[in-house]
């Protein structure tokens, strides 16, 4: 009796493994073969990840010679089309633009509903079109850019002074005057867009909330830039093995609380009727749509997420 029970257990193990592999094979090859471009067969669970090797651009070029300019790859359970010719890209984006307009949202950027309010990654639709139109008219229009020439001049002057200060500090430490230019450019662009959107010098020594906001947004960018294995193997989402989702939820929540303070402060100023040069935050708060080709207005949460979009405009 004991022997038969042990035999049954050992028999169930390979059956369970086979069933699990079958499940992942179905999830990986979810698109019907006739509706997708050709591509190399993938392994269960990991798909074609191993086909990319350590030099993905060279591996993809070799795959093109065999499968053509359009290749279908399964990266984990994520179906991916690789386009490797200008003609194919032009045809794809000209004749099938709506079908390819959306992108898979990384799990980290779904925190606090960020993907539903960001111009950079929100799905194509009426609200996205309304937001793009507003950005084009109020943030990127030539008149707005020309009117903000003095803001850009000040941002450049501040950047030059920062470079001089950091070079002197480096020499004082015994260095040769080295300056971390990527960090300097990041600080300048962050402060510039903050002035254009919020009329705030976020990195001023007098702006405690600005420095806290910068720190939180810096963390958000770090989390967003880390490759997350759960994006390719969704069954790991609940486990969050790299802690990316937890970290993003914490730091994006911190940034959103500060952005909410900016919105509340501006709402109070508008209520007092104080005249000022309107910026992009004013345009967002005063937006009125028809409700047919976009929202009637943007919610406070939408606006807070758009403020976090400082990183998308840099």
TrEMBL record:
Keywords: Membrane, Transmembrane, Transmembrane helix. It comes from the Eukaryota. The keyword Transmembrane helix applies. SUPFAM superfamilies: Cytochrome P450 (SSF48264). The keyword Nucleotide-binding does not apply. One of its GO terms (molecular function) is monooxygenase activity. Pfam families: p450 (PF00067). InterPro entries: Cyt_P450, Cyt_P450_sf. The chain crosses the membrane at residues 6-25. Belongs to the cytochrome P450 family. This is Cytochrome P450. It comes from Dillenia turbinata.
């Amino acid at each position: 009796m004991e022997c038969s029970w042990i035999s049954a257990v050992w028999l169930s193990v390979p059956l369970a493994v086979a069933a699990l592999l079958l499940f992942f094979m179905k999830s990986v090859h979810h698109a019907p073969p006739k509706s997708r471009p050709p591509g190399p067969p993938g392994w269960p669970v990991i798909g074609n990840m191993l086909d990319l090797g350590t030099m993905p651009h060279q591996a993809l070029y070799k795959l093109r010679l065999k499968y053509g300019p359009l290749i279908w790859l399964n990266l984990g359970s994520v179906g991916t089309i690789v386009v490797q010719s200008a003609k194919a890209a032009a045809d794809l984006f000209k004749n099938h633009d709506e079908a390819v307009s959306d992108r898979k949202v990384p799990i980290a950027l779904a925190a606090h509903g960020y993907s539903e309010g960001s111009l950079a990654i929100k799905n194509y639709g009426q609200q996205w079109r309304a937001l793009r139109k507003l950005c084009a008219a109020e943030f990127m229009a030539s008149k707005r850019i020309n009117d903000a020439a003095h803001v850009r001049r000040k941002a450049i002057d501040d950047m030059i002074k920062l470079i001089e200060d950091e070079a002197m500090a480096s020499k004082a430490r015994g260095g040769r005057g080295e300056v971390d230019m990527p960090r300097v450019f990041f600080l300048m662009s962050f402060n510039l867009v903050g002035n254009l959107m919020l009329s705030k010098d976020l990195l001023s020594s007098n702006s405690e909330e600005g420095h806290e906001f910068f720190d939180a947004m810096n963390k958000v960018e770090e989390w967003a830039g880390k490759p997350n294995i759960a994006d390719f193997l969704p069954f790991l989402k609940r486990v969050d093995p790299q802690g990316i989702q937890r970290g993003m939820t914490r730091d994006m929540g911190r940034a959103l609380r500060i952005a909410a303070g900016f919105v509340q402060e501006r709402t109070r100023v508008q209520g007092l009727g104080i005249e000022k040069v309107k910026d992009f935050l004013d345009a967002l708060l005063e937006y009125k749509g028809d409700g047919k080709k976009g929202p009637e207005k943007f919610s406070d949460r939408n606006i807070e997420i758009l403020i976090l979009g400082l990183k998308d405009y840099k």
